[in-house]
Amino acid sequence: MTRLRxxxxxxxxxxxxxxxxxxxxxxxxxxxDPVLALRVGGAASTLVAMALFVAAWRAPRRDVRDTEIYxxxxxxxxxxxxxxxxxxxxQIAAVLRERLLWHAxxxxxxxxxxxxxxxxxxxxx
Length: 125
Hints:
- The protein is an all-alpha fold and 125 residues long.
- It has one domain (4-124).
- It is 75% helix and 0% strand.
- Helix 2 (34-58) runs antiparallel to helix 4 (88-107).
- The N and C termini lie far apart (53 Å).
């Protein structure tokens, strides 16, 4: 189980990186109106944080065999023998939920920055 947490973090951070890339591209394309760009960035990053919270809420009830983490664990070199032990799927789900909540709490800081900057910029202009 020592290799589980880094693999879970890798999977979550990869998904967050793709979401961040999409948000940066949309915000960058709207820079002709900076207040609009910051508002859209705030709304999109709020959606990402809420998606992480929903994924954490669903994690205990979700079949972990359908997740990317389970595939990473199965393809690890050497293969992890404890995947066939009873209770392993519940442990994977618990770690997944814990790490999703951790990332979701940190992801909430991003929309706060976007919304604060949008407010300041709207008041200044």
